[in-house]
């Protein structure tokens, strides 16, 4: 398999764990320049109070500013259902382009209906600066990255590869965590299995960075593994488990899972590239559609 990037490049990857949502945000730096990218930022919400703050995003901003880095990209691996993106806030402070998979349009169509968004809500991905197709490349300083289309958890998921590091989004969790659910609207367990195989076809020593970790069985939070470790040890797909086994297991498991605590605000914000929806007077507001999800 040939890939469109130089995998001998070793980007510096700094991880920021958000304990409110178990999300890991990354600052990825090109080792040959002062340019960097952010993967999957988090905006803080006190849902009960309807209060938005930016403590987590400010840590990323502080790291980038203190090292005098230029932010080229603010990448979303997908429309997350468990946390809100801080992409526009970070962009307002540091610049950079906000990018997501081009199938965002499918997600916008689906949830545009769920939230009964009016005609003002564009379903063409135009809220984002860049829409990635499978195999699209982009630059972070002198380092090339590429987007790998990995649907299944959602229809718009992408894994991003920069040098010897891949950002897995919600395809895989750490080997003892397995895989992400595939039961959201537009999700598909078979597609997720195929996407995971695509990730596992990357070189064995590729560093894999997770978007989430829940510390199964009381272990400390971790986020970095390798393709080789996932192939041998992943509890859902490792050790030669078949597609049929995976679909059966995943479907049964997903049927028992509750909706993520922040799915309602997350979708409304993340399908708008991290912007809050507004009411008729232009004030930020979130809806709670009843009995539709
Ligand atoms: Fe997700």
UniProtKB/TrEMBL annotation:
GO terms for biological process: glutathione metabolic process; hydrogen sulfide metabolic process. The keyword Metal-binding applies. GO terms for molecular function: metal ion binding; sulfur dioxygenase activity. Keywords: Metal-binding. The keyword Metal-binding applies. Residues 22-212 form the Metallo-beta-lactamase domain. SUPFAM superfamilies: Metallo-hydrolase/oxidoreductase (SSF56281). InterPro entries: Metallo-B-lactamas, Mito_Persulfide_Diox, POD-like_MBL-fold, RibonucZ/Hydroxyglut_hydro. Pfam families: Lactamase_B. PANTHER family: PERSULFIDE DIOXYGENASE ETHE1 (PTHR43084), PERSULFIDE DIOXYGENASE ETHE1, MITOCHONDRIAL (PTHR43084:SF1). This is Glyoxylase, beta-lactamase superfamily II. It comes from Litoreibacter albidus.
């Amino acid at each position: 398999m040939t890939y469109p990037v130089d995998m001998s490049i070793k980007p510096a990857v700094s991880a920021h764990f958000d304990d409110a949502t178990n999300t890991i945000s990354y600052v990825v730096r090109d080792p040959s320049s002062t340019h960097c990218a952010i993967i999957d930022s988090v905006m803080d919400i006190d849902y009960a109070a309807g209060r938005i703050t930016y403590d987590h995003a400010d840590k990323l901003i502080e790291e980038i500013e203190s090292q005098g880095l230029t932010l080229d990209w603010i990448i979303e691996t997908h429309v997350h259902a468990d946390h809100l993106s801080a992409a526009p806030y970070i962009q307002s402070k540091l610049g950079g382009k906000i990018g997501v998979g081009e199938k965002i349009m499918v997600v916008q169509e689906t949830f545009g209906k769920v939230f009964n968004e009016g005609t003002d809500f564009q379903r063409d991905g135009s809220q984002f600066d860049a829409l990635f197709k499978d195999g699209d490349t982009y630059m972070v300083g002198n380092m090339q990255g590429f987007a790998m289309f990995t649907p299944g958890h959602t229809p718009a998921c992408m894994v991003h590869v920069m040098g010897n590091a891949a950002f897995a989004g919600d395809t895989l969790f750490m080997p003892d965590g397995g895989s992400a659910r595939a039961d959201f609207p537009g999700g598909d367990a078979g597609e997720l299995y195929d996407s995971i195989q695509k990730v596992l076809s990357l070189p064995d020593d590729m560093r894999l960075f997770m978007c989430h970790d829940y510390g199964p069985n009381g272990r400390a939070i971790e986020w970095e593994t390798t393709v080789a470790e996932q192939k041998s040890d992943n509890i859902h797909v490792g050790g030669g488990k078949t597609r049929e086994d995976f679909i059966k297991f995943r479907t049964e498991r997903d049927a028992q899972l509750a909706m993520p605590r922040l799915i309602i605000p997350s979708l409304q914000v993340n399908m708008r590239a991290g912007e809050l929806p507004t009411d008729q007077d232009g004030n930020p507001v979130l809806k709670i559609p009843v009995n539709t999800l």
